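Batch manifest line 446
LIGAND: tryptophan
JOB: complex structure
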Amino acid sequence: MAREKWASKLGFMLAAMGSAVGLGNIWRFSYVAGESGGGAFLLLYLVFVLLIGIPLLLSEVSIGRKAQSDVVGAYKEIAPGTPWYLTGFFGVISSFLILSFYGVVAGWSIYYFWNYVNGQLFTSPAGGYGAAFEGFIGHAWHPIGWHAFFMILTILIVYNGVKKGIEAANKVFMPTLAVLLVALAIYSLTLEGAAEGLAFLFQPDWSALSKPSIYLAALGQAFFSLSLGMGAMLTYGSYLSKENKLPSATVGIGLMDTFFAIVSGIMIFPAVFAFGIQPSSGPPLAFITLPSIFEQMPLGGFVGIVFFFSLALASLSSSVSILEVPVAYFMRVFKWSRHFTSVITGMVMFVLGLAVSLGMGVWSGITPIGDNNILDSMDYIASNILLPLGGLSMALFVGWYLTKDQALEASDMTRLPLGPVWLTIVKYVAPVMIILIFLNALGFIG
Ligand code: TRP
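JOB STATUS: finished
ARTIFACT:
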């Protein structure tokens, strides 16, 4: 059977942007930035995106397109008989970890959407938005229903193949999301307290840089937000043909993703200060601040409907790319049909997610890492450890396993003046930085 392909390069770009832009930009970015000191974090994050993220994005997509295979198969194809394919296994494992918590949070978004549609959240519930949110996510089975619903949607799209669902959907909602977020950011700027919020986001408190954990947090956020280091972009790249040029596409994807992160920061932090919420309040941050802004806005309930609808869609276009990684792999190895593979894999991820969901309430006493609950622990392992390790391995593969000519050829960089610069980054700069950040976080330096 012929391998599936995108209909156009634009289709690929939209799907890849759809993968990149998601809960990571709004929900995760805002709370991680809030916990890690705002401006100093933003600065590090931007440096890592530009210096490590975008160059590695190009490497990852190049490997996929060159091999025309899934995350494990790609290494077996290009480097037969070597252990490089283990990188792919890490990717498959990460995909299970990430989607199991991603699906839970995306389920919350759909619940919020639904409660705006029926008007429940138009005005602050008794006890406030914060208490309402905690009550909902801590409920034993309520959030699980929404999680299940979200996973069914994800499975349905992957079930229908690469081209039909994803390409079409992204064309509609990426522009919608952009317009909405920018409008919300502008509104947020008019709130009392906006200046304080902007200062928090844009005026680095340099003392925050002395904490080793902030470097790892910024690196993890850069990888998570760019969908990097797990093989999602590799798998998407494998549905591209040689005619599509990669460098401009990956830069576009990276910049777009960063744009969405900054806009959502501008949207959220002024509101955080305006409503007296702690910027360091963790994962619930966006779910509490945004409803508070909407309540104050003219037609805010309506904005809430559209916003949470967009957020759910943005999550869906990301979750699809996460599920596609193991699905593409299992389909090839076990020769299962796409239909069967997507249903089975998605169901396993749903079951894993049950632990995450229960971890917000009934099982909140279970704290695998430090005092982090199940969600935060899985996120920490996947985003701060597995993704950067995956990225490191991809960088070493392209920089050291491939010859210079092969690497430049695979990434369409052969004739570009930036080619050698990119290769130097992939070969030396990115790996050294990733390793230093790890050592630093482990306490070996500094
Ligand atoms: N980047 C997405 C977001 O910001 C999440 C995501 C999709 C992802 N695919 C991924 C994260 C692959 C890590 C790896 O919401």
